[in-house]
Design brief:
The chain is of the alpha+beta class. It has a six-stranded mixed beta sheet with strand order 1-2-3-4-5-6. Helix 2 packs antiparallel against helix 3, helix 4 crosses helix 5 and helix 5 runs parallel beside helix 7.
Length: 205
């Protein structure tokens, strides 16, 4: 995923300000709960360290995201050709990367805020929950989430950076290109290295 420094700075520290009716919407509540978990992690970031943030953020990510769906869709047409063992390995690695990415980027507390702006119906029985990240020292940034019902629960299936750029589409483009060039095992090794770089503090999104 490619993301500019301004957006990274905007999402590093947030305070959640849900709209009046957000707690009446199950989908919006998922986003509010995720943001609250991230907020608590950031407040304690210095004491927790990277592994502590992993331990704190992991359950929140598991609860908010449909990670198996996102892992599958990120590989596009290459998913059906994988063995069951490789599919399970990819889902696990995708989860590790997602949590490590949050832990590396939400790593300190500042004085910004995030608002739950609205919820709108989307295609294929999804909804879009729109949020706005407010930066007292810069411009506001839109961060929107697409959710669908999985096993009776609303879960995130995509994040739209700057309101319109699909994170899932960006990952699918990168991953499928690497598979087509060098194969699935090279993609796995590349992602394992990215997780290691995030843990070492040498990479952020």
């Amino acid at each position: 995923m490619r993301i500019g420094p301004a957006l990274v700075a905007a999402i590093l520290a947030v305070t959640v300000h849900p709209p009046v009716r957000a707690d009446e919407s199950p989908a919006s509540r998922v986003i509010a709960q995720l943001d609250a978990a991230l907020l608590g992690t950031m407040r304690d970031a210095g004491q927790l360290g990277f592994q502590g943030r992993i331990d704190r953020i992991g359950p929140a990510v598991d609860a908010a995201f449909d990670l198996p769906f996102m892992a599958e869709k990120s590989l596009g047409p290459h998913w059906p050709s994988l063995s069951d063992a490789d599919k399970a390995r990819w889902v696990s690695l995708s989860r590790q990367f997602s949590i490590a990415n949050f832990s590396a980027n939400f790593d300190h507390w500042s004085n910004q805020s995030i608002d739950l702006v609205s919820e709108e119906p989307g295609a294929a029985d999804t909804v879009m929950v729109k949020t706005k990240i407010n930066d007292p020292q810069g411009e506001s940034v839109e961060m929107n989430y697409r959710l669908r019902v999985t096993d009776g629960v609303w879960r995130i299936i995509d994040i739209y950076l700057k309101g319109t750029v699909s994170e899932l589409a960006l990952r699918r483009a990168d991953y499928t290109a690497l598979i087509e060039k060098d194969g699935f095992e090279t993609l796995v090794k590349t992602m394992q290295q990215k997780v290691a770089d995030l843990a070492a503090g040498t990479a952020k999104r």
